[in-house]
Amino acid sequence: MQIMKSHHIRWFSLIIIMGGLLLVLPLHLLGCFIAGFVVYELVNGLTPYFQKIIGGERARWLVVLLISTLVVSALTLAVMGIVSFLMRDVKNPAAFNTMVSRLLSDAQSRLSPSMLNYLPASIEELQHEFLQWLREHIAMIQTAGKNAAHTFVTMLIGMILGAIISLQTKQIGETDAPLKNELLQRVHLLSQAFRNVVFAQFQISLINTVLSGAFLFVILPLFGIHLPLAKTLVVFTFVCGLLPVVGNLISNTVMFIVGLSLSLWVGVGVLAYLIFIHKVEYFLNARIVGTRINAKSWEVLLAMLVFESAFGLPGVVAAPIYYAYLKSELKVARLI
Length: 336
Description:
The chain is mainly α and 336 residues long. The chain is built from 13 helices and no strands.
């Protein structure tokens, strides 16, 4: 009877955890989920090192304080950087107009006459078309702005929750409450799955950075092309690469814009190379993540394809984590 009751409690805890995980995606809380677990894992991972210097639970509080300081500092510097960049363009619009005019002239001199009909003839026409596009898509832009603000706020809340939960030092098995025990076991397995995927993402980011560095410092110089801020782009690529899928899109966009600032064809060449890297990384991602969670590449790819069809881009980000957790539960149940 006791075994049957324990079995029912375990199933109930699985329904709670898996139901919550599936609700994360339609409720647009994936950013909150990832941010919270990153802070949780950082605190738990760094605390043992600090405990060698500072005894007791003060080490855990110190780690939380350091992470909070770093996050706030990074956000402040990012906002200041964006404002500085925008203000620089506002103060010097002539330089921006000159660059755009040069790109248009470059395109008009190199492209076939049939393609020129799709390009604006001057900076004034480009500005007019851009304003018209803004008027036609104002609702979409407002929605995107609201979604970005929602993601930012939920990520901050997730970080706070992750820090608070990491300060709870009670271990699995210490309580007599059976449901709480089972829920803690589920969270422990989910934490392990998340950690494995994050470490895999670190490897992927490192490989992406090496490939981008080879392109910027070896391939392009062979053709006499030297992109400005190349070293900064390599560092930016590594940092953004730590974010699954979305990070690569951000770094690729910035690199394309920098290449476009030199000429149209440099921008096209950069874009073509980045598309090639992205396609290679899609399979590389499945290979590395699969090794971390003891899954075949096709399993991870299939999970990513299914989740992408069901939930879009957030599904691609969540698929490796969810699949790794599912395999952990199946192994614990000795079903695989």
